[in-house]
Amino acid sequence: QLLRNLLDNAIKYNYDSPDSFTKAFTRFHGVTPSSVRKEGAMIKSFASLKIKFSLEGGYIMDYKIVDHEAFQVVGKTLKVNTKDGQNFKRIPKFWTECYEEGICARICSDFKAQDLLGICMDFEQEKEQFTYMIAVKGGESYIGKDLTVRTIPAATWAVFTSIGPMPGAIQAVWKRIFQEWFPATGYEHAPGPELEVYPPGDNDAEDYRCEVWIPIVKK
Predict the structure, then answer these.
(1) Model-level pTM?
(2) Of 8, 45, 72, 94, which has the fewest Cβ atoms less than 10 A away?
(3) Which DSSP helix (H) or strand (E) runs through 69?
(4) How far apart are alpha carbons 107 and 98 in whole angstroms?
(5) d(CA 38, CA 22)
(6) Virtual CA dihedral for 33, 35, 40, 43, nearest 10 degrees?
């Protein structure tokens, strides 16, 4: 199957053979096609160029493709409206509220988690709203009433790295994913939640690193 895929790609992109395609792919991305498929290695994507009065786009976006089984999360939820970009204001405020109320520290401690998750789910396009959840992995045995337990279904994800202070850095990554990355690749958005993964650290720092996980399918 792998050889068949390599041959198809070689023909599609006008290479003489699967071997020449593999060599070119490895020189550009630093990994072989087979390692990307098996291990989810980081590869590069170029957004399409847009010519106006100045040259825009053409930026490199590093991403990796990850298959992940279903897992449970537990945390606090909030209905968020997307009209006029209200979500970009309300979600950072929700994070501030959860930190000040001790919810973030509590769920990390109670469920022995390090990474905090920001989850976009239950999209209601006609109402221009969705549910945003601040959570951690776990909650299988949780029986309380003040937190919500949800299941994140198994999916194939495109994983992008954000570098910089919150919330500006990750909001910029979100915009580039939909404005640049999807149009430039052979993927489309799959049904299901979208994830933000926040490791411990100073999220106001210029070098703070976190991730955006988008469920995808091939076109």
Answers:
(1) 0.72
(2) 8
(3) none
(4) 10
(5) 15
(6) -50
